[in-house]
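TL;DR need structure tokens for one chain.
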Amino acid sequence: MRTQAEARAQLLRHFTATLRALPPELSLALRHPDLPHAGLHRGVVLSEDLNHSDDGWATFDIRYWVLGTTPDTCDGYFDLVTAVWREWGWATRDGGAARTDTGWADTPDGYSLVLTRSVNGYLSMAGSTPLFLRDSVVGEPMPTRIAWRDGEAVSSL
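>> reply
TL;DR here they are.
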């Protein structure tokens, strides 16, 4: 039985592993310097049963901006990220509405990652955990930024 803390920690490991496989100029952050009014939150716990939101099982979802891309380069980075996920053997699929692209990856351990290119050409990456007991230990908050430092992907609260 997984706790929320364990689920969040593993989701962070998936984000960090993805970032490690990408060029060092990329990072993940809740705030984008080019989009000051489009800040993202530190994640949300969603109940499996919306009719009984305080009971049972839940998932955790969070989205980060992918920094270091521009509208001119986002297509190449989009392809790079989804190629990394496919290389790892994660189940992937593509889609999206007009003028957007979305790439989904499902990890063997039940996590989902989603890469989205907005209509303005900005990339964001979201992640969802498998189910955990809603009233379990929450653990550390997700970082506000995951970036490269000295050849390693590190996170900051």
